[in-house]
Amino acid sequence: MTNTVVTQKYHAQIYVTLRPSVLDPAGTAVKSGLSHLGYTNVDQVRIGKYVEVTLTADDETAARQQLDRICDELLANPVIENYRFDLTSV
Amino acid sequence: MKFGVIVFPGSNCDRDLVWVTQGILNQPTRLIWHEESDLSDIDIVVIPGGFSYGDYLRCGAIARFSPVMQSTIHHARAGKPVLGVCNGFQVLTEAGLLPGALVRNRNLNFICDRAPLRVERNDLFWTQGYEKGQVITIPIAHGEGSYYADATTLKELEDNEQVIFRYCDAQGNPSPESNPNGSLHNIAGICNRQGNVLGMMPHPERAADEALGCVDGMALFEGLLRAMPALA
């Protein structure tokens, strides 16, 4: 009987966004640009970051736990940013 | 007293600091590459301005994990002096040694100017060379220098008198008009609760040589020398 370690490859799409209380001057500038283009119905623009990560993990729970740590420790600064991610096995 | 000036890939104010501490003040100074971790010979760690690791992800975010920053965190927790200027201030907030964060300037401009600052305290070794309430002019050069913290943190900073420098007008009033970048409470520099870690966006090292036309930053370095017996 062989004892194989089963790991699964996952693909995460991570969205890092500024907390609502943090001003986003770049988003405001883009909104102004859209207004100049005639899109005067645009109320708000907020700019964030999109990060793709592929990783291997034992299962989806382990992958999610690790991604939470990755986001908390580096990808997002909790003082100014929130994050969320979508996870798919590949 | 021995200064240690950290050099990250992308630091660009490290030599300016060495010029002041070693060139003008004749103090032993060592440039410390980011992969080093032995700071045992250093009394004051200085994190210079620049664009550490290209400012990738966020300003200061990657620098925080370098070997030299782990040692700097130990240095700070031991109560020893750590100064972060500009990008160095950003690194200190990312490392959790100072509260809050530095975000994009309100008007999106990279600001290169001379800013009047009000010295809020002079009972720390960092600022003992100044008068309380004195208005000094120090160069600023940043795109992400707008200080942000949540309301609770701001209240703690004010209650504990951790705001050391505030952007102000020529008369010393921290007005909205004299706030160059949108920093909350016109904050230009803060210290930790203990007072041994100082972070500031303005560059005192660019205002310490007569040849540059302004020497308002020199009192900060001279104040450190006067505190030497207690610090070294």
The largest sheet of chain A is: 3 strands, antiparallel
Helix proportion of chain A: 25-40%
Overall pLDDT metric of chain A: 94
Strand order of the largest sheet of chain B: 2-1-3-4-11-10-9-6-7
What is the H/E string of chain A?
Answer: EHEHE
Structural domain tally of chain B: 1
Pathway (chain B): Purine metabolism; IMP biosynthesis via de novo pathway; 5-amino-1-(5-phospho-D-ribosyl)imidazole from N(2)-formyl-N(1)-(5-phospho-D-ribosyl)glycinamide: step 1/2
EC number (chain B): 6.3.5.3, 3.5.1.2
Main location (chain B): cytoplasm
InterPro entries (chain B): Class_I_gatase-like, PRibForGlyAmidine_synth_PurQ
Account of the protein in words:
The complex is a heterodimer of chains A (90) and B (232). Chain A has 90 residues and is α+β, with helices and mostly antiparallel strands. Helix content of chain A is 31%, strand content 32%. Chain A has a three-stranded antiparallel sheet with strand order 2-1-3, covered by helices on one side. The radius of gyration of chain A is 18 Å and the shape is elongated. Chain A starts with 7 loop residues before the first strand and ends with a strand. Helices cover 22% and strands 24% of the residues of chain B. Chain B has six helices and eleven strands. Chain B has a nine-stranded mixed sheet with strand order 2-1-3-4-11-10-9-6-7, sandwiched between helices. A two-stranded antiparallel ribbon of chain B has the order 5-8. Classes of the chains: A alpha+beta (90), B alpha/beta (232). The A-B interface holds A 21-26, 29, 49, 74-75, 77, 79-80 and B 57-58, 61, 65, 93-94, 99-101, 103-108, 146, 148-150, 182. Chain B: Keywords: ATP-binding, Cytoplasm, Glutamine amidotransferase, Hydrolase, Ligase, Nucleotide-binding, Purine biosynthesis. Chain B: One of its GO terms (biological process) is 'de novo' IMP biosynthetic process.
